[in-house]
Write a structure and sequence with these properties.
Diaminopimelate Epimerase, Chain A, domain 1; alpha+beta; 287 residues; 2 domains; two-stranded antiparallel sheet; 17-stranded mixed β-sheet
């Protein structure tokens, strides 16, 4: 059902470490937003403004809720770790549960409260084969035959969505605005790529800057953090399989478990405000 243009559409604004989301609840009343309408919602001048739009769906069997993620340009996003924590927080408040199951396009995401306002999400196992990223041609995903400017030999990881990770000596020296979009749209990545720039700090933690596919530079990204911890372990950048990951918006605690190969992400989720979107805004986007 297309949104009724004569009424307001309730929404909630949330963020995880500054990675911000507009969340619509379509569990009772279906909401069919087109790509241009989603992009208008995400527009920080003509809409509400966010990095991603999230739509809650009726729960499939075995899950507490279904969910769909969309980038700021209106394109689908298979995974979003920070948004998953936000959805989990909503479910904790609604149900009183300490653990929930969220069904996304990439499967079940299990979240639990871990105290001090933090939420841990099991983001599942990474995909490491070139076809799964996907790449345009066969290549070793641990050391891609790829270079651009001063950057070369990145790692590729899929967390249900494609990531390319460059380890550098100083993330602050990277020209994110220039390099991010060029790498995102490089023909090597037929579904585009989320681009990560990572520096290992003296204490063994990681400093991380992000260029997100369809959204641009963001304060944080959960699926990106998952890809980074996997790449850091594979490359031997860190000791062990866990590390603190410092993004512009704050710190996530990351672990790539050896027992089952799943990536665990722990961080906060914050509610900012609720409101109603003037539905005529969506009509303008259609026009």
């Amino acid at each position: 059902m297309v949104a009724d243009m004569t009424v307001g559409i309730p929404f909630r604004k949330m963020h995880g470490l500054g990675n911000d989301f507009v969340i619509f609840d379509a569990r009772q009343d279906p909401l069919d937003l087109k790509s241009a309408q989603l992009a208008r919602v995400a527009d920080r001048h003509f809409g509400i403004g966010c990095d991603q739009v999230v739509i809650l769906l009726p729960p499939p069997a075995g899950a507490d809720v279904g969910v769909r993620f969309y980038n700021a340009d209106g394109s689908p996003a298979e995974a979003c770790g920070n948004a998953t924590r936000c959805v989990a927080r909503l479910l904790f408040e609604e149900t009183g549960k300490d653990a929930v199951v969220i069904r996304s396009l990439v499967g079940e995401l299990r979240a639990r409260q871990t105290g001090r306002g933090l939420i841990t999400v099991d983001m599942g196992a990474p995909r490491l084969e070139w076809r799964d990223i996907p790449l345009a041609r066969a290549m070793d995903t641990l050391t891609l035959e790829y270079e651009i400017g001063p950057l070369k030999a990145p790692v590729a990881v899929s967390m249900g969505n494609p990531h390319v990770i460059f380890f550098v000596e100083d993330v602050g020296a990277v020209d994110l605005q220039a390099l991010g979009p060029r790498i995102e749209h490089d023909p090597l990545f037929p579904e585009r790529a989320n681009v990560q720039f990572v520096e290992r700090l003296a204490d063994g933690s990681l400093k991380h800057r992000i260029w997100e596919r369809g959204a641009g530079a963001t304060h944080a990204s959960g699926s990106s953090a998952c890809a980074v911890i996997v790449a850091a372990v594979r490359r031997g950048i860190i000791d062990g399989r866990s590390a603190s990951l410092h993004q512009p918006g704050g710190t996530l605690e990351m672990e790539w478990r050896e027992s089952d190969g799943h990536v665990q992400m722990t961080g906060p989720a914050s509610s900012v405000f609720t409101g109603e979107l003037n539905a005529s805004v969506l009509g303008e986007a259609e026009g």
